[in-house]
Predict the structure.
Amino acid sequence: LDAKWTDDAGGIVSLASFRGQPVILAMFFASCEYACPVLVSDIQRLRVQLPPADAARTRVVLVTFDTERDTPAALRAFRERSGLDAHWTLLRGEDTAVQELAMLLGVKYRREARGQFAHSNLFTLLNSDGEIAHQTPGLMGDVSPAARIVSALPSR
């Protein structure tokens, strides 16, 4: 995608900047009351299963659905609450960019009346060329197959 995204530090990022390394990508929103914290926990469990060298070369990218409320400050607060280190990048974008990314990933979402989002709980493994290598449904499932795939993905 050619879209520009804003990270939780206020910097401008393109998804192409992650090329050359494996990426674990998930869509979420910071004020989620249930599924998103569990999805992040699933990714944290996956990272723990990686050999240290593979964990060091793999990026995690979280992209928010909530373009209205998830400001860089809200994303930064989520990072702190969740204990996410520098291997994690939290991004927000324009509505159209979020919709396009969700469509490309096969992630379905819709805003509900009280401001929450109903959404697919899925994380995607991207190879070093930014292509989908694997997708895993989240929410307390077995992440070991995904960890094996990440370890097998080469870096450029």
Summary: The two ends are 20 Å apart (CA to CA).
